[in-house]
Write a structure and sequence with these properties.
Elements: E1 4-11, H1 30-43, E2 49-52, H2 54-59, H3 61-69, E3 73-76, H4 89-107, E4 114-115, H5 128-135, E5 140-141, E6 163-164, E7 180-181, E8 187-189, E9 192-194, H6 199-204, H7 207-218, E10 224-227, H8 243-250, H9 253-266, E11 268-270, H10 272-275
Helix pairs in contact: 4-5
Length: 279
């Protein structure tokens, strides 16, 4: 039986990336960039989960309405897009409070089931966030990146399939936990774990390898594919960055949307809450 995978669209502005070092020139492009993705999903009759940054929703309420009216799930990607390690527990509560207030003002009271931490910043340093999510009624998180390749994110030893996440150790499953975790799933080749299902990795890896690797994952389990609208938008501004940060930020933007379309053509996708059976 063909696996159905989860699709996550991290709906943020092009300048929200940590690699830009806080540079925020006044060019706002998320509506145009996201519209491209929405058009593509319409063409393939696919629904996904849009993890939206609160300040994006506040600035572009019409975009949030459009996403919701098209049948996509609305999830939370923080309010300011600050990683959890830049927030205290009190500030995180305030971010969630503001996010829910903005969404309620746009759509009324709708269930917000899912959260994704900016920059995959949930790990055992920031596990305090899990209790706050439960307080606000969240049913799942999608922030664990179970490969450690850089200092920004990664939880070595974490599960690679959906699990009930322990509030004491994010690498462990707790059947009594009320919060599900849908981690990113790397491609396993022997002892090697290769991130493959979104972001820079989607832009950098050749399409034939992506198709082969994701099919290999689907033999055993569904995967979670993530995409940022700015990654497929030709007009995304290029700032002066270090060579490494420039490479990670901009490499492959010209082909990313075509790669996403090819993946939509070869795999089946749905909202994260549907894959987890939460609807």
């Amino acid at each position: 039986m063909e696996k159905i995978n989860a699709l996550a669209i991290d709906t943020e502005e092009w300048f929200h990336s940590e690699l830009l070092g806080g540079q925020r020139p006044p060019f706002f492009q998320v509506p145009e960039a996201t519209q491209q993705v929405l058009n593509l999903l319409d063409r393939y009759q696919t629904k996904g989960t849009f993890f939206i940054v609160g300040e994006v929703a506040e600035r572009h309420p019409e975009l949030v309405r459009l996403i919701f009216e098209k049948g996509h799930e609305i999830g939370c990607h923080g309010f300011s897009h600050h990683p959890l390690w830049k927030l205290s527990e009190a500030l995180f509560r305030e971010e969630l409070k503001r996010f829910h207030s903005v969404i309620e003002g746009i759509l009324g009271k709708i269930p917000i089931r899912g959260f994704r931490a900016p920059s995959f910043s949930l790990d055992n340093r920031t596990k305090w966030a899990l209790g706050v999510l439960i307080e606000y009624g969240y049913q799942y998180d999608a922030s664990i990146f179970p490969v450690k390749l850089n200092p920004l994110y990664g939880v070595r030893g974490a599960p690679t399939q959906p699990y009930h996440i322990s509030l004491e150790d994010v690498r462990k499953e707790d059947p009594c936990s009320p919060l599900m975790e849908f981690p990113l799933c790397p491609l396993k080749i022997g002892r090697l774990k290769i991130p493959i299902s979104g972001g820079f990795y989607l832009r950098a890896l050749p399409l034939p390898f992506l198709l082969w690797g994701l099919r290999r994952i689907n033999r055993k389990q569904p995967f979670l594919l993530y995409f940022h609208p700015w990654e497929g938008y030709a007009e995304t501004p290029r700032l002066k960055l270090s060579f490494t940060n420039r490479l990670i930020s901009y490499y492959g933007i010209h082909s990313a949307l075509k790669k996403l379309e090819s993946l939509l053509n070869h795999f089946k996708f749905a909202r994260v809450d549907q894959i987890l059976g939460l609807r």
